[in-house]
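Course assignment 3, question 2. Fill in each field.
Student: A.L.
Task: Predict the tertiary structure for the chain below.
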Amino acid sequence: MNGAPPDLSRPLEGITVRQLQPKKLLHSKWTAVHVVAREKHFLVTRVMQPEQPDAPIEWIDIEAVHSQAVRRIAWQELTDAARWHQGWV
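Answer field:
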C-alpha cells in the first residue's frame, strides 16, 4: 500500500452498497471517509426536484458542518461505503 487515497472514480469490488430512498435524504447526516479540505461531516440541505414530476431525483446539496460550504452531488454517491458513512462518525 502506497498511502495514496483510493481511486473513487470507479466502484470498488467487494464494497456493500446501501439502499437509500432519495426522497428521505433531506436533513440526513453523513461522514466523508476521506477528509478533503478539512471537511468531514455533512448534512443534506436540499433534494433537487426534477423538472418533470415523474422523473427520478438525481441531485442533492450537501453542506459541510464546519465551513457551511455547499456541494451538489448525485445522491447515488452516498450509497458508496468507500466514500460515505451514514451519520456522524
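Instructor remarks: The first strand starts at residue 29 and ends at 36. The mean pLDDT is 85.
Grade: pending
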